[in-house]
Amino acid sequence: MTIQRIEAVTYGVTDLETCVAFMENWGLEKVQVNGAGADFRTLENQIVSLRNADDPSLPATGEDGSTVREIVWGVTEKAGLTAIGDELSGDREVREDREGCLHTYDDKGFAIGFRVADITPADAPDQTLNFHEKVERINQRGWPEDRMTPLRIGHAVYSIEEEGNWQAAEFYLNRLNFRLTDRSKDGGTFMRCEGSTFHHSLFLFHRVGTQKYFNHLAFEVNSFDDIMMGGTHMLKNGAVSVSGPGRHSLGSNWFWYFKNPCGGDIEYFADMDRMDDDWEPRYWDESPPYARWMLGDGILSG
Question: How far apart are CA 277 and CA 128, in angstroms?
Answer without folding.
Answer: 31
